[in-house]
TrEMBL record:
GO MF: methyltransferase activity
Gene3D superfamilies assigned to the protein according to its UniProt record, in alphabetical order: Vaccinia Virus protein VP39
Protein name as it appears in the record: Cyclopropane-fatty-acyl-phospholipid synthase
GO biological process: lipid biosynthetic process; methylation
Pfam families: CMAS (PF02353)
Record-linked PANTHER family: CYCLOPROPANE-FATTY-ACYL-PHOSPHOLIPID SYNTHASE
Amino acid sequence: MTERKSVAEQLAAALATVLGIPELPVRLRAWDGSVWGPGDAPVVVIRSRRALRRIVWAPGQLGLGRAYVAGEIDVEGDLYAVLGAVGEAARLGPDRSPPRLSRADRLALLRTAATLRVLGPAPAPPPEEVRGTRHGLRHSRRRDAAAVSHHYDLDDDFYRLVLGPTMVYSCAVWDDEKTGLDAAQEAKLDLVCRKLALRPGARLLDVGCGWGSLALHAAQRYGAEVVGITLSVRQAALARRRVAEAGLPDRVDIRVQDYREVDDGPFDAISSVGMAEHVGRALLPTYAGHLRDLLVPGGRLLNHAIAGHGWTATRDPDTFISRYVFPDGELVSLAETVGVLEGAGLEVLDVEALRRHYALTLRAWVNRLEESWDEAVRLGGAGRARVWRLYMAASALSFEMGALGVNQVLVQRPGGAPPPLRRDWV
């Protein structure tokens, strides 16, 4: 007589099928207390039958992500260990979904769900899932504003808890692994300003200015006259307060404005840090051409953006990142970015890869989130805190493994003075 498999063993087989791997590389504990898997492996807990029901209805990254955000799937101990083991077995990154299930695999999943008595209607997605940003033309101004609002219009104190006092939400630049996050972010701001050759009176456009950190640094340390634009109403409000507190309202202008609406050039320099990922592949030539037209002859543009190594992100709307983190976000390769900038008539002066730096930055953000977990839950809710923990930890691993990169590409509009013979920003 065949021994009946435990709930945990059946769940482990079902999850392995969904992930497209022969065996689940973690130890699984089910809602009934049964356990399956190697004793020394990291532990994943399936707290509720509802988790499996979500996976039946969305058998892939989205169903798993929904169950985690809802607290129906959890990790005991090191989240990096679990994500690393699963990612290595399935070769997944934050924007790569497991393979589509075959008909036979779907039937097997349904049989397991029936045996465990979890069949039923699809559970409602957690409230943190994107709402109202998927209507209208992709990357229209209205839809882009809604997508930005979904991610950035959260409680300012939630961001401050994770990012720290610099309020910089992009890759820092580290001297070594012992450099503190705040010092590394200050170093990044200064590097951008030096690459752009800012000087007193220079006019800078900061595209995607966030909470105004780079704008403030450029005005305070380099005497620049800055226009910062963002689509986030909450970001702009805090940035304006910070500008007022610094006594710089005559030198820093923060606007809620789409980059396509800026028409008061020329600018001596343009910074775009962590913003190009929101533009969309189809509009990258428009983006590059418009920013070129806003520069004076000889003016510099620094484009700092995440890129995939050897692949480009699809428009799959059902990835965890698309539904919970960056709606409508699109990554392109470094080669494509450079090609678009050159196609717009801009001369490439320098390309710097910062992949390892972003892994360190993300781990530092996760540490701050976990150290103040109860406060993060109070400010953003348990689901939102879990979204951030999962996406940042998974992204850190993807940068470490080389699935993702991040690059600063410095370009110049032809004309004006030639670039220096040495890289004076190093």
